[in-house]
Fold each of these.
Amino acid sequence: MDPITQGVLGAALPQAVTRQQKIVGATVFGALAGMAPDLDVLIRSSTDPLLFLEFHRQFTHSLLFVPFGGLICGMILYAVFGNRFQLSLKFSILFSTLGYATHALLDACTTFGTQLFWPLSSARVAWNNVSVIDPLFTLPLLLLVIIGYLTRRPRFAQFGLAWALAYLLLGVVQRDRAEAAGWAMAQQRNHTPINLEAKPTFANLWLWKVVYETEDDFYVDAVRVLHTTQYIAGEKAKKLDIDDDFPWLEKNSQQAKDIERFHWFSNGYLAVDSSNRNRIIDARYSLVPNQIKPLWGITLDPQADASQHVIYFTERDTGPSQRAKFFGLLFGQDQAPVKGIIDK
C-alpha cells in the first residue's frame, strides 16, 4: 500500500486504544512505525537488479518480525521524540509495535504479495481485496484520524478502523464476485483454468482484472462488478517456455537463474513480450485490465556471458490513450461491446 495509507492506519490503531493525554504521541509514533517496514526498499544492489524484489516485503513484513520491528522503532523514536511527547519507553514501544503490526497485514490485502510467514515460508500472500492506491479507503480513515488527533478523542480512530475493516471486507465480496465471473468466462471458452485470480484496478472496487492460466496460455479480461457483473473480453499471451523461446540460453547461466527468481516473484505468470522477444513479462498487471501490457519484466541478452544478470525494466504507460481506455471501462463508457452478463 502507499506510504500515506500505511502511516494513517499505523496511527489509527494506537490512537484508538490509548488515553486522551497520550493521543498525540500515539498518533505520531504509530504513523512513523506504520511506514517503517518499507525501508526494505533500500536493500538494493548495483550489480544484481533483482535483489530488491527478493527483499521487498520480506523479513521486515513478516508477522514474526513485528515484535522486533516495534521494539527497534520504539527505541529510536523514544530517543528522538520521547521527551517532546512525554512518552515513557514502555509506551513508545507499545505504540510503535501497534503501528508496525498494521503494515504487513494491509500489504497482504493488495496484489503484490507479502511474505507474512518468513522465514517459515517464502510464499507471497496476496488477498487481492484492495488496490495499492485507493483514496476511497484512505481519505475517510485519514479524516477520522485527524479529527481524533485534534479533539484528543480515541473514538474517531475507532470509527476509522471500523471503516477500514468494512471496506476491506467489501473488497473480499467484490473479489469473489469477480472470480466467479472469471470462472464463468473460462467455461464459456471451454477452458479449465489451472489458476485464476481477480485483482482490483486502480482506486476502486468495481473494475477488476481477471487473469487465468491454461496449459498453454494466459487470458486476461476486465470485469465490472456493480448491481450486475459484466465482463469485457481481453487478450491472451503464450506462457513462457524457456526451451522453445530461448533455445540459446545456458541452463547454468546467471540469466537462467534470474528467470527462476523472477518466476518466483511473479507466481509463475510469465510470458514473452510480443513486441520484444528477448523480454519476459509479468502477465498479472497492466493499467487497462483487459490488456497484456506489462508494468515490469526482465530483458535477456543473447550475447551475455554466463555471469551476467538480466536487466530489470518497468513501464508506466499512462498516456491519454491508456487513461481513456481505463476510465471507459471504469465508468461503462468503453467502446468495446460487453461480452456477457454473469449474474443479475
Amino acid sequence: MVEVAEPIDPTILVNEVEALGTRLARVKAAVGEVIFGQPEVVEQVLITILAGGHVLLVGVPGLGKTKLVETLSTVLGLAESRVQFTPDLMPADILGSEVLEEGEGGRRAFRFIQGPVFCQLLMADEINRASPRTQSALLQAMQERKVAMGGTTYPLPAPFHVLATQNPIEQEGTYPLPEAQLDRFLLEVEVSYPDEAAERAMLLATTGAAEARARPALTSAELLAAQALIRRIPVGEQVLDAILKLVRGARPETGALPAVKQHLAWGPGPRAAQALMLATRARAVLDGRLAPSVEDVIALAEPVLRHRMALNFSARADGVRLPDVIGALKASLG
C-alpha cells in the first residue's frame, strides 16, 4: 500500500514559517552580542543546524571558532560536550567504552560508559590533529545518530550536531580528514580574519571588567520543530533544476564544463544535492523568506561543494584552485 502525503495548508505553513523567522531573528541577535565580525560564518553555521547537519569550521587558531560553538550551545539550548583532538586520542575517548563489573553473587557483566559523543552539540576541537583511526570513529555517529558497541546499539540524543574545527592542513601536526567523513559535513565554513571595525569592537567588548555572555533564545524542542518545518517548505522546479545542474555538473563523468573535465579528480555525490536542498530552505527562512531561490543555491554552492571535490595533479601543477572551478559552475547557472 502506497502512503499518500497529507496536503500542506499554505496558510498554516506561511504562518509557521513567519513565526519561525521571528524566533530566528532573536537567535541571530543573541549570537551577535557575543560574536563580532563574522556574519557569514554565523549564518552558515545556523543554516547547517537548521538543516539538521554537521559543520566543519576551517581557519587558523584564535579566530573565535571555539567561542562560536560555546555561544550556540547556550543560545540554542543544547547540551554541549567538547573533545580536544590530539594525536594520542583514541576512539573510546569519544564514543565510550565497556568496563567489566562484578555484581552480587560474584556475577560479572560488562557495563557501557558513555563517552562525550552522547550530547546534543559535540564540539570536535582541532579534529584534524587526531589520527585517521580516531577521526573515523565519528562516522557512524554523524550519519546514523547512534553508536554500536559490544553488539549493542545506543541512540544519541536528539538533536545531535557535530561542530568541528579544523586547522589549515599546511600546519604542523595535522592529518587530512578521510573523504567519507568530509562528506558527512553539510557545510565547510571558512573562518577568516575580522575586519578592522569588528576587531576594534571585539577588543572593547572582551577586555573590560565585564564581558558579554550568551543568553538562551531557543530550546532544543523548538529547534527540533524548526528542523521539521524546514523540510516541509516546498522547493520550486527552477531551484531543483539549479541544484541538479550544479551538482551533476561538478562531476568529471557528467560535467560539461572544460574546467570540470580537465581539473577535477572526483566530484560530489548525491549527498551534496541533499545538502543543498536542505540548506537553501534554511537560508530562505533565516532571511525571512517563504521559499528558496536560485540565489540561495549560488550562495551556498562553495560551502557545500568544496570539501566534496578534489583537484587532479595537473590542476594543482597549473595553480588552479577549487574556488575557480566552483565559480565557473556558479556562472553556468546564470
Amino acid sequence: MTKLELAKKKMEHVDWDVTRRETVEVGGVLLTKQTCDIWDKIWAFQAKPDDLLIATYAKAGTTWTQEIVDMIQCDGDIEKCKRASIPDRQPFIEMVTRKTLPTGLEKAEAMPSPRTLKTHLPVQLVPPSFWEQNCKMIYVARNGKDNLVSYYHFHRMHQMMPEPGTWEEFFEKFIAGKVLWGSWYDHVKGWWEAKNNYRILYLFYEDIKEQPDQYCAHMRNNLPNWNPRHEIQKIMQFLEKELEKEVLDKIIHYTQFEVMKNNPLANYTFVPPEIMDHTISPFMRKGTVGDWKNYFTVAQNERFDSEYKQKMAGTSLTFRVEL
C-alpha cells in the first residue's frame, strides 16, 4: 500500500459530520470552538530545544515552506519526503478534526525528536514553552492583498472552515480581523517584532516566489538577488545544513508550485472531497503574486491601502504586492 493510500485509508470510515466550524475568541483572536475546547492542553504543550516551528498566517505559503524544510532535512531524498502526508510529517499543533482522529497536538507529542511542527497562531498565543526552550522558528509572511484572496478561496473549498459569505463580506471580515487566527496586520507585525528577541527566520512569500529572470530586471534597479535559491539557502543556513549544489537544484525543482500541485502527499487531495472540495478551488490554487488585481475593486484597493497605512504605521515591515 502506498503512502498516499495509507493517508486516504486513515480518513475512511470516519463520520466527518461536515459542518462549518463555529468560532470562539481566545485573547481577542478567533479560533475554532474545537481548538478552544482543548486550549489549556495546547497552551501547556511542552516544546523541546530541538523543535523547529514553522509559523505563518493561513494561506501564506505554509505547505510550500514545510516541503522545502522537509527536503532540506532529508538531504533532498524524495523517497524520504514521501514517507507520509504533510500533516503527519509536520503536525499542525492547534488542529482538531474529529474525536476519532488524533489532534495535531497528540501527533506532535507522539513524534520522536527532532520534531518539525506547524502553527498559524499569532505570536502571543504560541505556547510559552517554545520561547522558554528558545526553539528555532521559521515565519513566512505574504502580502495582505494576495493573502486575503487565497484565504477567501480556501474558505470556499474547505467545508469545515467558517462560512466565508460573499467576496465583499469576506473582504470586510479580513480587514476587521474577524477571521480564524485573527488580524493579518497584527499577525505579521507580532512575529516581525518577536524576531528581534528569539531565533526566528522571517521570510517573505514574494521573495521565495521571485524568479532569476525577475532578478535580472531588478539588477538594473540595484536591487538585491531575491530568488528561490537565495531564500532556500537562507533556510539551509538557519537549519545549519550544508548541501551540494546538485541537491539544492533538486530541492528547487521539487518545491516549484506546479510540481507540488501534482504531489498528492502535499496538495491535500488525500482529504475526503466532502471536506476539501477541489472542484470549487484547488488547495494549491495559483501560487502567484498579484492575483489580488483580479478581485479587488478600485474602492476595495483604496480601502485596503488606507487600512494598511493606519494599522502598519510605525513598523519597519514592508511588503511587495506585485513582482
